Amino acid sequence: MRHLFGAVLFAAMTPALAEVPPPEELKLVSEHPVDGMPAGNLSGLAWCGDALWAVSDREDDRLYRLDSSATVWQAEAERFVAPPAPAMPLPWGLRMRGWVSGLVRGGHLDFEGISCDAKGNRYLVSESRAAVLQVPPAADAQWLNLPEGMVRQARASGMLLHFNSLFEGIAVDPAGERLWLAAEKERRGLVVLHNRRATWRCEGGCVLLNEGGEEASPEALGGRSAPVDFSGLAFFEEKLYTLERQAHRICRRTPATGEAERCWSFAAEALTDERRYPLHYGVAEALSMDAEGAWVGLDNGGHARGDGEKRPLVWRFAAPAGGWGANP
User: Fold this and answer.
1) How far is the C-alpha of 185 from the C-alpha of 211, rounded, in Å?
2) Which residue ranges does UniProt annotate as crossing the membrane (predicted)?
């Protein structure tokens, strides 16, 4: 009976997907190695003010402004002090595995994404704590007071159940009134929170979308099946955009439901011999969108790709003909 209830719950909370047109291939405009991130592991990107900012999942006390005045970008660190993280309702086993992982590789907070509002506040999502840290431009960092029901609802829908498969992306609207988080895989999904009178809350439920299952990787990777995933999230012109690492694509989604409207592939550019990594999974972890194109950041874990490059990289893709909002 318990298994039957779970199956019914998943079916009820997973919206029927509209038929999405085949993805169009994006054109790579430029790529930029990044110096100045000693720990590597670029895990989040966001355009804030006049520059791109990045975060590493191996460092708990800094984010980086990217100086893009040359082909090789220089990362300039801005340090902050994160207060003790709030206790969200994650099981003891998940919390302990995150703590041990932080001891071994660095990054107890495991920051996996960054987003900005129009006031210049930076928002960092901690995968290990299922929490969001706000870093204002001229004030102390502080954790958002997120409702515990958000984590409970996500876990009840099948998300946030597995180590290293928790929240992987974050997006905030310019007004700082809506915040979305992307659960990575097994099951992947989207949750949304609303800021009402300085209080973050679920309105009609936090979970927008949850999906399980596997899909084939691009043919250049052998077409092997892998769990569907989200590795980055961005908000642009009233649409959500998900970075889907294993499928090597970006998808435009409806903010109110998470339903996919259209997707674009970057597999052809990413999987050339010189850009391939000796890994059985994707390395695209970070996403920022604008009218002219998309920025995609790579977390290569220090591995060298086909041409020997080992530094973190940022790719610039041109927007498709007609722009990101164009319909097929």
Assistant:
1) 8
2) none
* pLDDT of 234 higher than 60: yes
Joined tokens for residue 38: 């000693």
- Structure confidence at residue 112 (pLDDT): 97
Q: Which of 154, 226, 217, 220 shows the shortest CA–CA distance to 190? A: 154
Q: Which is it for strands 225-227 and 207-211: parallel, antiparallel or unpaired?
A: unpaired
Is the bond into 95 cis (omega within 30 degrees of 0)? no
Q: Is the pTM of this model over 0.85?
A: yes
| pLDDT bracket for residue 101 (50, 70, 90) | confident
User: Which domains, and CATH codes, for the chain?
Assistant: 26-318 (2.120.10)
Query: What integer pLDDT is reported at residue 12 of this predicted model?
Result: 38
Structure tokens given for 289: 């969108």
Euclidean distance between CA atoms 286 and 71, whole angstroms:
19
Between CA 190 and CA 121 the distance in angstroms is 22
Q: What is the mean pLDDT of residues 165-169?
A: 95
Tokens of 144: 């958002």
- Across all residues in the chain, what is the average pLDDT? 91
User: How many CA atoms are closer than 13 Å to the CA of 163, on its beta-carbon side?
Assistant: 11
